[in-house]
Amino acid sequence: MQTINDAELAIRVGMALDRDAPALEALHGGMVGEVYLARWTQDRAVIKVDRRERPQLAIEGMMLGYLARESELPVPALLHVADDLLIMQHLPGTSQFNVAAEQHAAKLLADLHAVTGPACGFESDTLIGLFPQPNGWTSSWVAFFGERRLYHLAQLAVDRGAMPLSMLKRVDALIQRLDQLIDEPAAPALVHGDIWTSNLLADDDCITGCLDPAIYYGHPEVELAYIALFHSFGEPFFQRYHELSPIAAGFFEERMDVYQLYPLLSHICHFGGHYVDSTAQKLTRLGF
Fold it and tell me: Residue 125 falls within a domain, yes or no?
């Protein structure tokens, strides 16, 4: 970690917490804003700073607060929430997971997915990385996933010049047949929405932190597909999850590819590049 010299930021953090200004060290990560470790003599905190014209860190704070109230996920306590400054509890752990930690993650996520909502969506729009995640309540998961997830990001990718219009048409053709490709959930389940290695912390056999959520209520299979796409966890996770909350037949063979289009489209919007080819290959595999 690199110590930084930003006296104005350190003073603001101290004032927000009604204590002395801390020493600041830059941390890796922070797609939405910069991330620092604030260090005092006895304790530490993690801060995020969003210096953009329209900062949005309060949305992340809202999502973390919601997960703290509604689930057992180990999310950091919120110490200060503002659009441009988020101060959180520092949690122990690293992004290295042994078998027991993967199994613990399965238990945490199975419990999270047991939290159900009145419909698909959320009480407000959220974020997936830098971009809006529209969440208007929708009774049909198929309609919600098609319109507010796949089409929304595919159109955004085209608007940003990151993806050709021809691929948007292929995504739209898939959406027209989406009711033949995925199923409605027994009840809309709360999902974290962005479970990959850097957003999780483990200490020995336990998951100690779940960070950077992109929450909404939907089908838990969308979370499992995301985990599989980015290899967040392996076989120990999926075996334990299936024991706790059985995964319906056909997920790995059929529906997983459909659900993986959403994070792939998100990565096109954020990074472009080879994710366009990966998405095209996925669409071809699905017959579109």
Answer: yes
Q: Position of tokens 């990718």?
A: 157
> What is the mean predicted confidence (pLDDT) over 224-230?
97
Cβ-based neighbour number of residue 213 at 10 Å: 26
Q: Which of 30-34, 68-72, 132-136, 152-156 has the lowest mean pLDDT?
A: 30-34
Helix (H, G, I), strand (E, B) or coil at 222: helix
Contact criterion met (CB below 8 Å) for 178 and 145: yes
Domain of residue 57, residue span: 2-89
CA-nearest of 52, 63, 62 to 82 is: 62
> DSSP secondary-structure letter at 160?
T
- CA terminus-to-terminus distance, the chain: 46
Whether 195 is in a domain gets the answer: yes
Please state the pTM of the whole predicted model: 0.94
